[in-house]
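Anyone opening a protein record will find just a pair of labelled lines. The record below illustrates this layout.
***
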Amino acid sequence: MHFFLIRASSNKAEAQLSLHVKGDQALSPIRAPFGSVLYASHILPQVLRDFVETVESELSEAGISSIKLTEPPSYYRRGDLLHHILLQSGYRIGKAELSAGFLIDKKKFVEKLDDWELPKWKLALSKKLQAKAIPISKLDQAYAFLSRCREERDQALSMTLQDLRKTVEAFPKAFLLFGVYLGNELIAATLAIQVARDIWYTFYTGHLKKFDNLSPVVYLTGEIYRQASRRKVRLLDLGTSTVDGTTNFNLLEFKLRLGAVPGSKLTFEKDLR
């Protein structure tokens, strides 16, 4: 189900919400990392509240008994207007996760590294590691590599190769691949998504365990940051640090040592009956 708030004078959308209906529950999204309401930065608070209430009314009339909205990390939004409106409208926070992301500015990546991570960057340079973009046509090989990295840690990727292929085929310009090489060997890789013109999200990242001593993800993140900055990206989202519903503080702290900032990622729920 799709809902739009259109300004009559310009015939342009000022707010939008897409929902997946599963039984009598409305979800945004059903599988993606986040969804929720999109709205223009200049929208009036009361207008946004009225839009949310209209959506709820339409859902109730359609026999939907509950709604769940998974918000992007807080640093995606310029302010928390929607959060206030949802809480005032009777929504509860069903899940609270922590993400980390770079707010890209004039500083270079290396200038943001803390004293613990800087030597790893210098080690990568001394070992002549090469970080570069990989054509999206190499998706199958990259998926196999990332899957191998997860298997080494008794983990698995959240999407099958078939599902990932379908998504990339639907949005071929939205996916980016990056890798770090030692000689001709791929030792670390990231699959990133262009969420918006000025936002990138690192969806999958991994490195081979035998190269733990080189910490290649530090160097890889630096290359992604550099390319994002060159393309006028304002936000590089490194994703959540949650494993089985629990915050992985070691992973979160690693991202923060790279220079990222933390942001809450909240899921809002409401019973409509």
